[in-house]
Amino acid sequence: MKKNSVTGLNNIFLLICCIAFIMSCTSVNAQKNQRATESKKPNFLFVLVDDQPFDAMGISGRYPFLKTPNMDRLAKEGANIENFFVTQSICSPSRASFLTGTYPHIHGVNQNNIHVDPKWDEFAPFSSHLQQAGYQTAHVGKIHMAHKKGKNHIRPGFDYWFSFIGQGKYFDPPVNENGKEYQEKGYITDILTNKAISWLKEKRDPNKPFSLNLWHKAVHQPHLPAPRHTDLYKEEELPTPPYDTHKETFKGKPQWQRKKTFGFDWKNNLPIALELPEKKWPINYNRNMNLLRCLAAIDESLGKVLATLEQMGELDNTVIIYSSDNGYFMGEHTFLDKRLAYENSMRVPMLIRYPKLIKPNTIIDEQCLNIDMAPTILNLAGIEKPDYMQGESMVNLLKGDTEDNWRKSILFEYYLDTYWPFAGPNQIAVRTDSYKLVDTFLKNDIDELYDLKADPGEMTNLINNPKYAEIEANLRNEATKLKKQYKYNPERDWWLKEVIKSKQDQ
């Protein structure tokens, strides 16, 4: 064999060895990167909307014309918790429960107009625990608890703060950024979205895991859509609610609800019929249609943030949570707003995407609560749940595992309102998969009992039906058990003592 042939073969052999070595190193590095990615702490993006009905999403089919492609994407690529409820159906108490994992009667915020905070020293938000574990945290949007200015507006647990006092404004809102007060120009949903994206891309330490709250003002009344969406759905009609709940006459229902419907002060003993005439459909057409128009900007916002996470390479390592602080009546039972123990008020959307844990198109039927969110976030971050948190981690449910010991009943609460159209008495509700009991503690009025399987629209009150006496008794026993379990004591806080003195003796 000629020398140059041998040299050529040697060169080929060396080349093959080099290629094999490079491939081996590449494989090792890929395995290391894969292990690093798998062991990397998850990020959290918590998007919270105000007043979104649980069925106001494209995937629900309630409104055939409603387009929410990004919400639908979360459901298709993650989990839809179809029976997710708030412990109290109003902004401030619900948001405090999401943060602290405790009931309103525990964390101390049970109304919007009291301007109080949770007892942060006793009930720290989940963000404080994440901070201690090395997370960077940010809150962008509505808080509705911090009714103070300057640095005093910033709530504990956040490295970056962008918010506003109370409900805020849809257009050109006064805002607070890290203690600095000024006025932003533009539409509130777009402003919050841009601030959230700016923080993700420019203001955080990319070497640390993050937790970002993007908590919207929309779609709260007065339901002002973005100018680009003013004429959206202009030619559409609002479909009647499922189960014909718009035909509510309140026959067999509590008297205080009939008074509330007519705008009477529920404490006044005004004469009122035992059954009201049906209202003509549509009910509150412009209000409800504008709420749906406001959702268009929310869905666009969600899409922009998802795209940002994808560009950053963080999408699949981020637990994306999407929910609402309470439900909302869209003409069901002829009501507007929320606050009552009907399903439309206390039930909210809950979508969670995290492909490392959750399979696509996961449906969860178990009854979950807003107090479960803080323990779930901490569990996913590898942090032990504090003793004061009353909720439970939903991680096993999200993984698809059977939870034999998962709760079989939930407790809902609400506190006295005297201002119409929100007027209503103190109330608690106990809900199981099959039944719901609502107790308003009124001596001269009836309670409510519904068969949720036979009557999912809650149109027929069974409280005086002797066939359901045993079921009622069982639910009242369950209420006693739950009140003890969750340390229910509405007189615990000073701002309730004055209103409870009246005892609601109507």
Give the secondary structure arrangement, pairings included.
Elements: H1 3-39, E1 43-49, H2 69-77, E2 79-81, E3 84-85, H3 91-100, H4 104-107, H5 126-132, E4 136-141, E5 160-163, E6 174-177, E7 180-183, H6 188-203, E8 210-215, H7 255-262, H8 285-312, E9 318-324, H9 343-346, E10 347-348, E11 350-353, E12 362-364, E13 368-369, H10 373-380, H11 395-399, E14 409-414, E15 427-432, E16 435-439, E17 448-451, H12 469-485, H13 494-500
Parallel strand pairs: 1-8, 1-9, 2-12, 3-13, 4-5, 4-8
Antiparallel strand pairs: 2-11, 3-10, 5-6, 6-7, 9-11, 14-15, 15-16, 16-17
Helix pairs in contact: 6-8
Plain-language structure description:
- With 506 residues, the chain is an alpha/beta fold.
- The chain has 13 helices and 17 strands.
- The termini are far apart.
- The C terminus is likely disordered.
Instruction: State the helicity in percent bands.
Output: 25-40%
Number of domains: 2
Largest sheet: 10 strands, mixed
- Could you say what the CATH architecture of the largest domain is? 3-Layer(aba) Sandwich
Strand ordering within the main sheet = 7-6-5-4-8-1-9-11-2-12
Summarize the model shown.
The protein has 506 residues and is α/β, with parallel strands linked by helices. It is built from 13 helices and 17 strands. It has two domains: 41-240 and 281-407, Alkaline Phosphatase, subunit A (3-Layer(aba) Sandwich), CATH 3.40.720; 409-506, Arylsulfatase, C-terminal domain (2-Layer Sandwich).
